[in-house]
Amino acid sequence: MKVSFFNKIGLVLILLVAFNSCSSYPPTDLTKNSIIPKPVAVVATLGTFELTKDAAVYVPEGSDELMQIGNYLATLLNGSTGSNLTVQPTPNIPLKGNILLSLVSDDNELGEEGYELIIGNDLVHISAFQPAGLVRGIQTLRQLLPAGVEADNLQESRWLLATGAIRDFPEYAYRGAMLDVARHFFGVEDVKRYIDHIAMYKMNVLHLHLTDDQGWRVEIKSWPNLTIHGATTQVGGGQGGFYTQEEYKELVRYAQERYITIVPEVDMPGHTNAALASYPALTCDGRAPELYTGTSVGFSTLCTSKEVVYQFIDDVVRELSEMTPGPYFHIGGDESHSTKEADYIYFVNRVQPIIESYGKRVIGWDEIANATLVDNAVVQYWAKDENALKAVEQGAKVIMSPASRAYMDMKYDSTTVLGLSWAGTIEVDHAYNWDPATLVDGIGRENILGVEAPLWTETVTNMDEIEQLVFPRIVGYAEIGWSRPEMRKWDDYKVRLAQQRERFEVLGINYYPSPLVPWHKEDEKVK
Ligand code: NGO
Q1: What angle do CA 119, 122, 128 make, to 5 degrees?
Q2: Is the CB of 72 within 6 Å of ligand 1?
């Protein structure tokens, strides 16, 4: 497959040695670009393509889905480039200066999300086996253009690309980020911005931690008090908030447009104080606790012996599943310290079939592996090797979110103001330098569905604070999920990461300027 790829673009590798400058103008060496995640293969053909104002995006006739992807690309480019890119359905290869998006029917290696990006002197062509691959390829194209492309107003620039070809597909099928909207609530616009951030680095899952002791954040029509009462506060006593069902559907739609799956989490049987405060019938003594605005864990539990609890769960899972096209439903299951072990196991064993009855695949934090997992269950490793190993013994797949590496709420170092440190501090190199497939003895590549980086928000109150903890670590998690381990080296990555700085700045991302990354800000100012 690779041979044909190289042949196709007729590369002249020897010339690469001669043309070895990354800051040359116009750009001619595609291999000198700092793409994150690092692609599988890049070859240069040493020419230059120019995207002009007259360009258009072409897609094959007859596909609404490809038209929509074309529009996504046009919207990304139009504001900053001053182009008025329109999307044209066509049966023919378009003329000079344009972008073509198309599907290929005979390249299974590209899978769900792989793509080929061929930049010729006359045409930029992204092809993929499935539509999601085109959207991933568009992210690469974005990164090849000057950082100003990220602006939403007109930039004075020529939009030049080095010619060549990129062939690329991911290492793991599941590459996610989690956002805890329960400890502090974040509205629709914040979540959309978060979705755009993860889309840019080819992540494909947004896990929303929708419920916890401090708040219930999504409208459930059959149990209205969950939000009427249970959403009215948050950590520190702020006013909280929740998504109406219309708003939740809007988030799903926005994510879908970027080929990102929303995974809803309803944490149970612990982490349920907001639900218990809203419906005393869910507690064993029938008394409603007060709403909770602190940050302790492990004190609440649904009453696992009451039938009404399972009716409640059935209703919640039904309403949420109806609004969630993705295949997963996350049942939490972590830190149920006030549920007796036998009750916990009984509970998890009863809840899993409810999830399945609504056509969803169960995900739970690693503790659920102590119960009998249903076929196809997925266990999210965060704390205990022994739990993850029990999951694998039962044939379950694992999502790797080791707290000491992948928790974006951990401080970078002891001077970081935001965040927690119970799992240690996580500098940008520590966040990057690990391999999901070798982290836990007995859990290999074949057991792993993918990687997810959670952001818990006990200490985080607004988007700026989210970004301070998330950037730049999330960029590294995206690469861990996408790029092969043998292609990932910190010394190479840190240089590519530094090149993202301008993009962060154009996008107004409040990133943490880690001293370990050669951002070269001062040098540039001198120039
Ligand atoms: C734990 C806990 C969460 C906390 C988080 C803080 C899991 C799975 N349960 O992770 O409730 O918010 O740590 O880092």
Answers
A1: 40
A2: no
